[in-house]
Specification:
With about 475 residues, this protein is mainly alpha-helical. The chain has one domain. Helix content is about 85%, strand content about 0%. The chain is globular, with a radius of gyration of 22 Å. The chain starts with a helix and ends with a helix. The relative contact order is 0.11.
């Protein structure tokens, strides 16, 4: 697996992340902090469906795709489950709204259910493209959805200006992206009920795991409803969404590039090749995630004020750093440290670790929120994510070793430190200044890596130049 292939996935995720940041900025400004809080709670409700039901089914597809004898039947069976769950939950949300049993603002729950259903189908299509190593199709699905969200979302805010309408617009964006992707690739014909025990044996523990993960990642929104005004919930949610749509995308892009190949090597019984790929994955991951975390901790506060307005100019001083660290730790855990446990199908073991970290996170949030406000929620989230990462690290060592050369780690540390010093020393204002700071930081980091010859960078560049006609 080459660095070029990893960068292809990262580039797709980065472009879609930039588009998502643009849409987030437009949504926060268009809705305002209080209405954005209702939108964020709708997203939290949708995330419950996508996290607990859709993600385990997609993960099952990724894990079982390597068995070519089961591939067609697994795809059909899982697609039927995705469509069935999505349709059933939409009906349930409509009934709850009709009975007045929804805990959200009017019509937010049905709109959130529709978004969860359409997002689930889109995620299934993306996972299938990734498992089949269809890089172009993978990028197409993500980028079309990101562009459609901006166009439909902005139009909806101007016409209707409400959280339910915006959630419906995002559902339409998912439908546009996935339109035609099923044809010739998916079919409900071949759905095999006899696969249910095999699928349930892997997916059911993951559903428990994902529910606990949902409490860890989204429980802060529900606690904030009871401890802070809606405007503060809106500010916290906007910042948390910004970090998730940037930093976690780096981790997920790397996972998309490496996980299918590790699964295929493991499924073929090639344990040494799986270990080699996993070790190589670690090298690439640390070289991208560490500078991203350091750089974003410097840039989040000025970026929030510029993107979201002056209401975000007086943030608690430690809030941006806490949210950045929580996003990075959570992304590394989910897309790197959990990989060995998923390969070994130790999903109940994984669930136990997430239960521990989720409980710790919610307890700490409940204690810290009345004392530290929205920063307290970020503190509890970071502590829970860190505990979960340590647990996965310890439990997964018996499956795959976490190997990273000391010279490579030292090189990344030095380059990140030099980049961080540059960001601290030079702080121009405005959008142009923010963009220039970012580009300069990337250039500094790349040059230091080149000077220190990280991972044989000079030889790789020289070889690429020799192959160029």
């Amino acid at each position: 697996m080459s660095l070029r292939a990893s960068l292809a996935y990262i580039t797709v995720r980065a472009v879609s992340g930039v588009l998502s940041v643009c849409s987030l900025s437009l949504f926060v400004r268009g809705l305002g902090a209080e209405e954005y809080a209702n939108f964020a709670l709708g997203l939290a409700a949708a995330a419950l469906v996508s996290t607990v039901l859709m993600i385990p089914l997609n993960t099952t597809l990724a894990r079982l795709y390597g068995d070519s004898t089961l591939r067609a039947r697994v795809q059909a069976s899982l697609l039927a489950a995705v469509l069935g769950f999505g349709g059933g939950l939409l009906v349930a949300a409509l009934v709850a709204e009709w009975l007045g049993a929804s805990w959200l603002a009017p019509w937010v729950l049905p709109a959130a259910a529709l978004f969860a259903a359409t997002q689930g189908v889109l995620d299934f299509s993306v996972q299938r493209a990734n498992s089949a190593l269809e890089t172009r199709r993978y990028g197409y699905l993500l980028l079309v959805k990101a562009v459609a969200v901006i166009g439909l979302g902005v139009a909806t805010i101007h016409l209707f200006n409400g959280a339910p309408a915006l959630l419906l617009a995002m559902s339409m964006a998912c439908m546009i992206s996935v339109a035609g992707s099923m044809r010739g690739r998916f079919s409900l014909r071949g759905c095999d009920a006899s696969l249910a025990p095999r699928i349930a044996g892997f997916a059911a523990p993951l559903m428990v795991t994902c529910f606990l993960s949902y409490l860890l990642n989204w429980g802060d929104r529900y606690l904030l409803m009871h401890f802070v005004p809606m405007a503060e919930l809106g500010r916290y949610s906007a910042l948390a969404d910004l970090t998730q749509q940037t930093l976690v995308l780096v981790c997920s892009g790397l996972g998309a590039a490496w996980y299918p190949r590790i699964v295929q090597a493991w499924g073929a019984g090639q344990r040494e090749e799986a270990q080699r790929l996993f070790s190589r994955y670690a090298v690439i991951a640390v070289s991208l995630v560490m500078p991203a975390a350091i750089g974003f901790s410097f840039l989040l506060s000025p970026a929030a004020a510029l993107l979201f307005g002056q209401g975000f100019a007086d943030l608690p001083p430690n809030l941006p750093t806490l949210l950045v660290l929580a996003a990075v730790v959570g992304g590394c855990k989910s897309f790197y440290f959990d990989v060995p446990l998923l390969l070994a199908e130790r999903t109940w073991q994984l669930a136990g670790g997430i239960a521990l970290s989720a409980a710790m996170s919610l307890v700490l949030m409940s204690w810290a929120l009345p004392r530290h406000g929205i920063s307290g929620a970020a503190m509890g989230l970071l502590c829970g994510q860190t505990l979960g990462l340590l647990y996965s690290f310890l439990m997964g060592r018996a499956v795959l070793h976490h190997r990273l050369g000391s010279r490579q780690l030292f090189t990344v540390l030095v380059a990140s430190a030099v980049m961080g010093c540059g960001l601290w020393a030079w702080q121009p204002g405005g959008f142009a200044g923010l963009l220039l700071r970012f580009l300069t930081a990337v250039l500094i980091y790349a040059l230091v890596l080149l000077v220190l010859d990280f991972d044989g960078a000079r030889a790789r560049i020289a070889g690429a130049l020799r192959r160029t006609p």
